[in-house]
Amino acid sequence: MVPIEYWLMRSIRRSLPEGLIDFIHDRGIFRTPGEETHRPEETARWYGERAQARGQALDGKAVCVVGFGGSFGVGVHLLELGARRVILQDPFAPLRPVRNSAISEALRDKYFTVSGDSWTPDPDRLVVLRDHLEPYAQDHPGTADFVVSRAVFEHVNNVNSLVRACFLLTKSGGLNFHLVDLRDHFFKYPFEMLSYSATTWRRWLNASNNLNRLRLPDYERIFGRVFGSAEIEVLTRLHEEFRSARPRVRSEFLTGDEDVDAAARILVTAAR
Question: For the domain that residue 155 is a member of, what is the CATH number?
Answer without folding.
Answer: 3.40.50.150
